[in-house]
């Protein structure tokens, strides 16, 4: 048990055998008086107790801060990480969570009481599950792998998509609040409503909402609906599509082939689903492109 009224320092020795690397749970349960940040970036130290064998095996980490921030950097880990991090401070500058994991199938559960700072969660390859609760706003980048994202914290949660289908995998987003939460794209082009005459433009984010039941549930249905929604001029370009029906939204990468107008089922790759029905206007409101 770590001390609850001071800064805790953990000296990590080198693991020497398989008995040292089969599993570990770290707990930092703090009293209300503790205000110092908790920084667990030492977990990645070369030659520390978390050597290569331990990082490949996986680790459970539970940590709580009364007022301080929590920073966890496990980007060098290849095993599955199970992280539960909580901050209780409610001040404007208290309780920021900054968590990054490696390539394992990670489970991250975070809760922050403060609404004045923006937390960061970033994972890489692996089929990860990320759940946020509390009042903090989080920027969530799940990376490659088929990830489950549950943005249940009441702050404005931003789900960040990478710039290729391969870097995204397929993300399943549940609990998305369409009037507040954000779909963030790093491609840097514009949002375009599917209507009128359109020419496929690289990195454009084409949006078609308000579809009837099942029209966003399969690649074939999305291709048909988006093709019918506008008069298309084909171009060799990779763009993005968001289509939403009566109960869900699907997001696709679209690699258009010059000479074939409209969207073909073979040209699109699913990168994410959201359990929210949206109109085209609501899709535009819920999207941010940087």
The backbone outline, from C-alpha atoms, is elongated
Helix content: under 10%
Helix-strand category: mainly beta
Number of domains: 2
Oligomer: single chain
User: Whole-number radius of gyration?
Assistant: 22 Å
Beta fraction: 35-45%
Biggest sheet strand order reads: 1-3-5-7-9-11-13-21-20-19-17-15
Give the mean pLDDT.
80
Which consecutive residue ranges, at least 5 long each, have pLDDT under 50? Answer: 1-49
The count of β-strands is 22
SSE series? EEHEEEEEEEEEEHEEEEEHEEEEHE
Quote the distance from N terminus to C terminus.
44 Å
Tally of helical segments: 4
Largest sheet: 12 strands, mixed
Explain what you see.
The protein has helices at 52-57, 165-168, 219-229, 280-285, and strands at 25-28, 38-39, 59-65, 70-73, 81-87, 97-100, 107-112, 118-122, 129-134, 137-141, 148-151, 158-161, 171-173, 182-185, 191-193, 197-199, 205-208, 231-233, 237-244, 249-256, 268-274, 287-289. The longest helix is centred in the C-terminal third of the chain and has 11 residues, at 219-229. The chain has 2 domains: 18-155, no CATH class; 191-281, no CATH class. The model is unreliable at 1-49 (pLDDT under 50). By secondary structure, it is mainly beta. It starts with 24 loop residues before the first strand and ends with a strand.
């Amino acid at each position: 048990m770590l001390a609850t009224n001071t800064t805790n320092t953990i000296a990590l020795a080198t693991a020497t055998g398989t008995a040292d690397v089969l599993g570990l749970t770290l707990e930092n349960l703090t009293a209300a008086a503790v205000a110092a940040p908790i920084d667990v970036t030492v977990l990645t130290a070369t030659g520390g107790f978390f050597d290569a064998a331990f990082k490949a095996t996986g680790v459970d980490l539970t940590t709580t801060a009364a007022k301080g921030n929590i920073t966890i950097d496990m980007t060098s880990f290849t095993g599955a990480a199970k992280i539960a991090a909580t901050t209780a401070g409610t001040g404007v500058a208290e309780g920021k969570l900054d968590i990054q994991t490696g390539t394992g199938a990670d489970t991250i559960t975070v809760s922050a009481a403060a609404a004045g700072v923006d937390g960061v969660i970033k994972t890489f390859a692996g089929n990860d599950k990320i759940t946020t609760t509390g009042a903090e706003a989080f920027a969530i980048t799940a990376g490659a792998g088929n990830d489950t994202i549950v943005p249940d914290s009441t702050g404005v949660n931003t789900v960040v998509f990478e710039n290729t289908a391969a870097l995204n995998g397929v993300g399943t987003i549940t609990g998305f609040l369409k009037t507040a939460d954000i779909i963030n794209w790093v491609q840097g082009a514009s949002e375009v409503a599917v209507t009128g005459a359109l020419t496929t433009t690289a990195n454009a984010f084409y949006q078609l909402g308000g579809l009837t039941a099942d029209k966003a549930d399969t690649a074939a249905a999305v291709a048909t609906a988006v093709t019918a929604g506008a008069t298309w001029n084909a171009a060799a370009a990779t763009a993005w599509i968001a289509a939403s029906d009566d109960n869900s939204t699907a997001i696709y990468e679209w690699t258009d082939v010059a000479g074939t107008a409209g969207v073909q089922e073979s040209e699109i790759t699913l990168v994410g689903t959201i359990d929210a029905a949206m109109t085209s206007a609501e899709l535009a409101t819920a999207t941010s492109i940087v």
